[in-house]
Amino acid sequence: MGEIKIRTLTPLWTGDVDRECKSIKETGIIGSLRWWYEALVRGLGGYACDPTNSTCEGKNHCDACELFGCTGWGRRFRLEIEGLSPVPLNFINLKSMPTLDWWINRTLGKNPNSLYGEAKLEIIPLRDGTNTENVLAFLLKTVSIVGGMGAKTQNGFGIFEITSELEETKIEEGYEIFQNSIKKLNSSSNLPNFNNFFKFDVEIRDIREFSKKWTKEIKDSYTLTGFALKYLLRTEFKKINEPPIINLSDIRKRCNQVRGGVKRKYTPSKVVARYLFGSDLESDFKAEVWSKWASRINVSHIFKSNSDFFFKIWGEIPQSLNYDPNIGEVMFNREKVINHIRGILENYFGTDVLDFEEVKFGKELIKEVLK
């Protein structure tokens, strides 16, 4: 494979130790690719460890460490990246919602930059050359179609397209090699699993009408709207009378059992919003049990393709999640979750303003990758 060229559609983030993004960090991209690979492994029933709490070492390692390495077992490839230029990040807000500058400053720092433009990815296999190249070709195409690469993809960053022509046989062979390498064991239910992944693109049919809702006209090749769009979804999910979950009566009972000043944070709709869009409990709870968890639903910034404007909604909706010991397991109705997302956006921007592509989940996404 050697070289793959890409073009970013929204800025890409790979932060350094100072939480700044001044240049590309290959380690950040490799970490992101590993996250995707782990999810794919689990989607096939294989075992991929949690790198933050892994026992993999030497030859005793999981399917993900086989490719990406662990203590005593080297990664099968080296990655070199050229291109991309730093750009200042200027976010815009929805007129009807409070400013998110405080949250952006907390998340990205003041006056942040990110990376944008065209890049060349040089993948140098260190072992098992052709097989490694083909598996990585399949992996990169999957990421480009389904979601984003790099850090902070949950906030709109890292959407890209592959501009090199990849041979279909390489993608198909890479997928076949990947399938045959899986050892077929089970993984933790709370870890990302590609079977639960979904995505749909949203085309903005009437950009003038859409822009009326924002503090700035949307006209550039990308506009930094991901924070605000996700905040809108989180806010509206907290107001849903009948949240899209299967065990609603159980969750109501558990919410009613919560005591103390924190009780205001416990209604079924707020719990569902928290489980899907990330924890908001840390500032109130200092005990170790109140650990943070990331959003399962990601909203990209708006980007321009040819003369049309789009944004992408993607992520993971598992059958169930178990985060908060006060609540326990929450069981989701995936179809209703998607319908609520669409309904919130249509209600806010207008039914004639947005055009929603077909929603695809795990196996359907793989079929799209292999086209």
What does this structure look like?
The chain has 371 residues and is α+β, with helices and mostly antiparallel strands. The chain has two domains: 3-181, Alpha-Beta Plaits; 197-362, no CATH class. It is built from eleven helices and 13 strands. The chain has helices at 26-43, 63-68, 101-108, 129-146, 168-181, 207-211, 226-237, 248-256, 268-277, 334-349, 362-369; strands at residues 3-8, 77-88, 113-125, 160-162, 197-204, 222-223, 297-299, 302-305, 308-316, 320-322, 329-331, 354-356, 360-361. The strands form three sheets. Strands 5, 6, 7, 8, 9, 12 and 13 form a seven-stranded antiparallel sheet that branches. Strands 2-3-1-4 form a four-stranded antiparallel sheet, with helices on one face. Strand 8 and strand 9 form a beta hairpin. Helix 4 packs across helix 11 (362-369), helix 7 (226-237) packs antiparallel against helix 9 (268-277) and helix 7 packs across helix 10. The longest helix is centred in the first third of the chain and has 18 residues, at 26-43. The protein is globular, with a radius of gyration of 21 Å. The two termini are 19 Å apart. Residues 283-290 have low confidence and may be disordered.
Give a nutshell description of this structure.
The chain is α+β, with helices and mostly antiparallel strands and about 375 residues long. The protein is about 35% helix and about 20% strand. Helix 7 packs antiparallel against helix 9.
What's the helix and strand layout?
Elements: E1 3-8, H1 26-43, H2 63-68, E2 77-88, H3 101-108, E3 113-125, H4 129-146, E4 160-162, H5 168-181, E5 197-204, H6 207-211, E6 222-223, H7 226-237, H8 248-256, H9 268-277, E7 297-299, E8 302-305, E9 308-316, E10 320-322, E11 329-331, H10 334-349, E12 354-356, E13 360-361, H11 362-369
Antiparallel strand pairs: 1-3, 1-4, 2-3, 5-9, 5-12, 5-13, 6-8, 7-9, 8-9, 10-11
Helix pairs in contact: 4-5, 4-11, 7-9, 7-10
